[in-house]
Design brief:
By secondary structure, the protein is mainly alpha-helical. It contains 14 helices and four strands. 58% of the residues lie in helices and 5% in strands. The longest helix has 26 residues.
Length: 353
């Protein structure tokens, strides 16, 4: 039987690399309130962008898509979802909004997890929303030869309710003791949640929503302004690798949480770094829209598309973005890569010399 007693497990995670990540995040958190207080009005755009990206990329990980225009309209609640994918996107939007507005009042208890899952599927009409799985499920993977194999067998359906209750109880007991850094406990909780795999569908999206909820409740609210889901989706191969690595021996209480904890802390560090760079950009006085676009391209590692620039600048029109790109190309400050729908741009660092 699985033991969810974190008291016996968290100390093994204090490796030099993880301690370094924890220290970095604590430093970022110390500056977080100052940044937000000084730039509260200017951060509204970041908040809107993060909502759109979080909804888009968390669903994208699960193969749920719609067009960029439809996605934005749905997230901003300016249209009704039509397709099954759009209904699931709308459900994610509503749960995300609930967590943003009410995280302080959402306890980590089984009934609340069920309510969040219910709302995730409230537009779809699926009967499994808000219910634990009715039959045993598996976590499968597809190999390079195209064959599907079983990667992990979660707890059976008949044990699910008890397992989730034990998981929540163990987490609440140690988090309330304030003896352990919550940044260690949150990834451990998320890994155990995914290994239980309590629902017939939506386990991955629920895990990312719960990660945001737990981080917010512990005072780490960077996910409001920078999409953690986007960072995960952009590194999803590593995400699946560490999930696999940390789930070995899980049923026997012999699994190693360290790979998944280290990965999750790295995601949080990346989000904070992006947050601070964005705040510095939006807080600059009298910066024109063209200068903002230039700074975004210059600060982006690798290539970036026009649509990505527009997502980062929802207040800037497509005409202004295109005009700025043309000017930057003409001046040799950026380089154009590809053509047509695959066109992207990168900063011309040789021009800086």
């Amino acid at each position: 039987m699985r033991d969810y007693n974190y008291i016996q497990k968290w100390e093994k995670l204090l490796t030099p690399q993880i301690v370094s990540l924890l220290t970095t995040i604590h430093e970022f958190k110390g500056r977080q309130a100052l940044f937000i207080e000084a730039n509260s009005d200017k951060l509204l755009d970041l908040l809107e962008i993060a909502k759109i990206q979080s909804t888009e990329y968390s669903n994208k990980i699960e193969g749920i898509y719609t067009s960029d225009d439809r996605l934005k309209q749905i997230v901003l609640d300016k249209t009704m979802p039509k397709t099954r994918s759009e209904k699931e996107i709308a459900g994610y939007r509503d749960v995300l909004n609930t967590i943003h507005a009410n995280y302080e009042y959402i306890p980590i208890i089984p009934s609340m997890l069920l309510q969040l899952h219910r709302d995730l599927y409230k537009f779809s009409g699926e009967g499994y929303g808000g219910k634990f799985k009715s039959s045993d499920n598996i976590i499968a993977e597809v190999g390079r030869n195209g064959k599907k194999s079983i990667r992990f067998k979660p707890v059976p359906a008949w044990q699910t309710a008890e397992s989730i209750n034990d998981l929540c109880s163990a987490f609440n007991e140690i988090i309330e003791s304030e003896n352990v850094d919550p940044l260690l406990l949150i990834p451990m909780f998320i890994l155990d949640f995914l290994c239980i795999h309590p629902f017939d569908d939506g386990n991955g999206r629920m895990s990312r929503l719960l990660m945001l909820l737990l981080l917010y409740r512990s005072g780490y609210i960077v996910g409001k302004y920078i999409s953690l889901e986007k960072i995960i989706e952009n590194s999803k191969e590593s995400y699946y690798e560490v999930l696999k690595e940390s789930s070995y021996g899980w049923h026997e209480n012999e699994n190693n949480y360290e790979p998944f904890v280290r990965y999750t802390l790295g995601i949080i560090v990346s989000a904070y770094r992006e947050f601070e760079s964005r705040v510095i950009l939006v807080s600059k006085v009298n910066v024109s829209k063209s200068e903002r676009i230039s700074e975004i391209i210059k600060g982006h590692i690798g290539k970036i598309t026009k649509s990505e620039i527009m997502k980062l600048c929802p207040d800037i029109s497509q005409t202004t973005v295109q005009r700025t790109l043309n000017n930057l190309l003409e001046n040799g400050q950026i380089t154009k890569i590809g053509g047509g729908r695959y066109t992207s741009y990168t900063w011309n660092w040789r021009k800086e010399k």
